[in-house]
Amino acid sequence: MLTLPRSLRAELKEPLGPVYTDPQALFEASGTPIVAVGDVVTEHLLSVATPAVALVDGQTKRTPLDTPVDLTPFDRKHAVENPAATLSRELLETLAQAIDANERTVIVVDGEEDLATLPAIVAAPPGASVVYGQPDVGMVLATVDERRQSTVRELLTRMDGDHEAALRLLGSPDTSDDCELQ
């Protein structure tokens, strides 16, 4: 549905919030619900609490994990396909439904879950926390608010593909007022 163009890659390396190395401190600073993106982040958060939604792909830094994350704390498990550097329709739909659900949900991604941070910020309610890994640095805590959602919607519109349909799947209103669709 959306593909990351090479021109946007460098821009996505900047953290969308403060970086933590201590899961307890991150948890104490977070709002609800918590959406965890990535295996290592999910494992760290599970040491203090179960996120409302977690996305895992069995890898860290594109290398398979020796020991997979324990998924037993989650109530529901969904499997989706999402190739590297993309956001598939299946991932977007499943993520939006999981955020709206009242059950702890893990989404197991066949492919790559790295970009799921962006749609998670758009789909999550204000005050929620989206946590993702900053390689070799720590865990980024992105608190969802109107400004951050607007920034991320604008980033999504700069990806290749059907931006309007993607934003509709995430429950985001028409963004023509706050950013230009390409």
UniProtKB/TrEMBL annotation:
Catalytic activity: 3'-dephospho-CoA + GTP = GDP + CoA + H(+)
Single GO molecular function: GTP binding
Top-rank taxon: Archaea
InterPro entries tied to this protein: GTP-dep_dephospho-CoA_kin (IPR007164)
Enzyme class: transferase
Enzyme Commission code: 2.7.1.237
Keyword field contains GTP-binding: yes
A UniProt-annotated Pfam family: DUF359
Keywords recorded for this protein, A-Z: Coenzyme A biosynthesis, GTP-binding, Kinase, Nucleotide-binding, Transferase
UniProt KW Nucleotide-binding keyword: yes
UniProt pathway annotation: Cofactor biosynthesis; coenzyme A biosynthesis
Signal peptide positions on this chain: none
GO BP annotation list: coenzyme A biosynthetic process
Transmembrane segments: none
Binding sites annotated in the UniProt record for GTP: D39, V40, V41, D57, E113, D136
Protein family: Belongs to the GTP-dependent DPCK family.
Functional summary from the UniProt entry: Catalyzes the GTP-dependent phosphorylation of the 3'-hydroxyl group of dephosphocoenzyme A to form coenzyme A (CoA).
Name listed for the protein in its UniProt record: GTP-dependent dephospho-CoA kinase
Species: Halocatena salina
Lineage per the UniProt record: Archaea, Methanobacteriati, Methanobacteriota, Stenosarchaea group, Halobacteria
